[in-house]
Design brief:
The protein is globular, with a radius of gyration of 21 Å. The termini are close together. β1 and β2 form a beta hairpin. α17 runs antiparallel to α18. It has a two-stranded antiparallel sheet. It has three domains: 67 residues, lambda repressor-like DNA-binding domains (434 Repressor (Amino-terminal Domain)); 117 residues, no CATH class; 94 residues, Serine Threonine Protein Phosphatase 5, Tetratricopeptide repeat (Alpha Horseshoe), CATH 1.25.40. By secondary structure, the chain is mainly alpha-helical.
Length: 393
């Protein structure tokens, strides 16, 4: 069926190499034996918390569970090499200081590419752009606006590295972004850096540590001198949304509800979602996080109910990266409720609105795998999606 091993295949190989039975690995990871069997045979999708638990039990990084699916591997490898070089040379940029107006337009374009999940195009511009914004900031010591641009471009780089399953590169980018944020005296820039730092812990399955990063960032921001209520709502609300994901994957329903209720409080003052410093916040995006939390906490029926209304009336103020993730979460919820046709419908929408995300997103690929195993091969739309992800030739 596929050209790359499924997570279940990877788990089985790693488990056997360590001499572990399914029963013992399930016990070590705190999951049921029947669930592990279904993951290995491909009849249930692996969720991020379960992947994290299995990776910890076998003492391997999460990427060993998922593998590293890429679009156009050779092209991406070259682009990623260029990005690594630019990130490594963060104090020695190979670029001249460009015209400020042109640079500002290029930064906005990079942020648009990120929001539209056009990762290959983004990778093509990031190395030069990183050099240019850094050269500009280094030539203007103490200029908060110049350093804020560096923070924003590193935020774009993090999104690409994270989505293309490059955790080591994502970690390095976050450290550079934090370095740039410290030069700005801008609390918003520090929130953006903390958001991505918590994201690296989320990707590694270290949800409790990620929550600690979020709580520290919230405390630091609340003690800042920010007086703009709108900016404050976006910054704190965004941090609470990151907390919703981390807490729900940590299976902490109380912390999830606490972060969600606070995010809703801040979102109530923002009638239309806004995108600021690569952070999207407002009532519609908060609803998407609530839907995802229902899935993580084992209530796919609630998520499906929310998803039905969102599909009937799709959010109008959200960017493709948020809409794509929404459709993927709806697909996962519908799969869990055995609504296979509905799961396929949601996936098809994800591929339409953010194809490069849908093609590499682990949960998108997992839902497609399971639908295949459950004898959905004859469905032409599903076959097309499987070919686009490389899961079928």
């Amino acid at each position: 069926m596929e050209s790359t091993p499924a997570p279940g295949d990877n788990i089985a190989v790693l488990r056997k190499a360590r001499g572990l039975s399914q029963a013992k690995l399930a016990r070590l990871a705190g999951v049921s034996g029947s669930y592990l069997t279904k993951i290995e045979t491909g009849t249930r999708p692996i969720t991020p918390p379960v992947a994290a638990a299995l990776a910890a039990a076998m003492r391997v990084p999460m990427k060993r569970i998922y593998g590293q699916p890429f679009l156009g591997p050779s092209e991406q490898a070259e682009l990623l090499t260029d990005l690594r070089g630019a990130v490594r040379r963060y104090t020695l940029p190979k670029a001249d200081v460009p015209d400020p107006t042109v640079l500002a337009a290029d930064v906005r374009r990079a942020m648009t590419l990120r929001a539209e999940t056009r990762y290959l195009e983004l990778l093509g511009v990031l190395p030069t752009l990183l050099g240019q914004v850094t050269a500009t900031a280094l030539s203007s010591p103490g200029e908060a606006g110049a350093w804020s641009q560096v923070v924003d471009v590193y935020g774009c780089a993090y999104a690409a590295a994270h989505r293309l399953a490059q955790p080591d590169l994502a970690d390095m980018i976050v450290s550079r972004q934090a370095w740039a944020a410290q030069q700005t005296w801008n609390p918003e820039a520090e929130v953006s850096a903390a958001w991505n730092e918590a994201g690296t812990y989320q990707s590694a399955g270290q949800y409790d540590d990620g929550l600690s990063i979020v709580e520290r960032a919230i405390s630091k921001y609340e003690s800042s001198q920010e007086t703009d209520a709108h900016v404050k709502a976006i910054s704190l609300g965004s941090l609470h949304l990151r907390g919703v994901v981390l807490a729900s994957r940590h299976m902490d329903s109380n912390a999830t509800e606490d972060h969600l209720s606070k995010a809703k409080k801040y979102a109530a003052n923002i009638p239309k979602d806004v995108l600021r410093h690569n952070l999207t916040f407002g009532q519609e995006n908060t609803a998407l996080y609530e839907l995802a939390a229902h899935v993580e906490l084992g209530s796919p029926d609630k998520a499906s109910e929310m998803g039905n209304s969102l599909l009937d009336t799709p959010p109008t103020s959200l960017t493709p990266n948020r809409l794509g993730r929404m459709y993927i979460d709806i697909a996962r919820a519908r799969l869990d409720t055995k609504d296979y046709a509905g799961a396929e419908e949601a996936l098809e929408r994800a591929f339409k609105v953010s194809p490069q995300m849908a093609e590499v997103h682990p949960m998108s690929r997992e839902v497609i795998r399971v639908l295949f195993v459950l004898h959905q091969r004859a469905r032409p739309v599903l076959m097309t999606l499987a070919k686009r992800t490389g899961l079928s030739s």
